[in-house]
Amino acid sequence: MGVSEPRHARPHRVKTGEGVDHPLADLLRPEAGQSFRWTEQQGRELLLVEHPRCTAVFSRQGGQLLHFQPRGERPLLWCAARWPRIGAIRGGVPVCWPWFGRHPMESGWPHHGWARLSDWRLTGKEADATGVRLNWRLELHDWVVELEAELGDEMHLRLTTRHRDSETCVLSHALHAYWRISDVARVGLLGLDGAEGRDLLVREACRQEGELRIVDGCHRVFRRGGKVTIQDAGWQRRICIDGGGNANTVVWHPGSRPLGEVSWSEGLGFLSVQGAACGQDGVTLVAGEEARLSLRVWVE
Ligand SMILES: O=P(O)(O)OC[C@H]1O[C@H](O)[C@H](O)[C@@H](O)[C@@H]1O
């Protein structure tokens, strides 16, 4: 449903004291009206979304939302500037599927599953006055995975897994979002007070008391979904993340552990808060059943 974009439109870029807010922002022209355009960057096919209410970028690899920026706001998602030639793009909302983390039996299989390494098919795109809706599909063996994205003033992602086999199957999955923040030392995560889970850094059960602050890394899997808020004192904004009925909320930041191809200062600019069903909350699907994950996000 694209319309042609105005010629000579100037790229839009928000700068901060710490540098550029998002490495893909230069590709977009928010004033271009409603359009969907394909382009290529670092060997990946990207779909650029320009709408009066928001701009966004998807990668065909992974069906991965890499950038989302409601009009008048800073970008909501963080993305690494450099991507490996082959492999997962670090940033945006990678879909971890059909397993989260290490495969439970096959040590040589890729971390976080096949979905973020595979090319997805765009099965629908439409725009109206309030925003855009996109549908991505991945078909692998007996599985059909669909990602529906509604983007406007808010962002809503829904992941649905169906399997066409008559056998029962198990999976774990996550919408592994990387949120763009001013500085990981200046944010707090609200809404987890009393939540129980597992701290994977110390390999112990944990229970959150009050606000969660990140001190040299965090890797906790809480056994609940629902709403959490990233309170960003540096940018004076709150990112509200509603994980609805997701089984788990995962909070991750590598702290001082290096992340391949991500510079130290880049790594300070994100916090990963994910909607997931993993570990002991992995999903067992009987024939005909569906598994779902969702994230609804807005800025306050
Ligand atoms: O480096 P990746 O495979 O993209 O994974 C990034 C991170 O994702 C998750 O949150 C995992 O729980 C972490 O263990 C992992 O380091």
From TrEMBL:
UniProt keyword Signal, yes or no: no
Reaction catalyzed: alpha-D-glucose 6-phosphate = beta-D-glucose 6-phosphate
Region (Disordered): 1-22
A Pfam family per the record: Aldose_epim
Domain of life: Bacteria
UniProt keyword annotation of Transmembrane present: no
Membrane-spanning ranges: none
InterPro entries reported in the protein's UniProt record: Aldose_1/G6P_1-epimerase, G6P_1-epimerase, Gal_mutarotase_sf_dom, GH-type_carb-bd
Keywords: Isomerase
SUPFAM superfamilies in UniProt: Galactose mutarotase-like (SSF74650)
EC number in record: 5.1.3.15
Family: Belongs to the glucose-6-phosphate 1-epimerase family.
Protein name stated in the entry: Putative glucose-6-phosphate 1-epimerase
Organism listed in the record: Metapseudomonas boanensis
Lineage: Bacteria, Pseudomonadati, Pseudomonadota, Gammaproteobacteria, Pseudomonadales
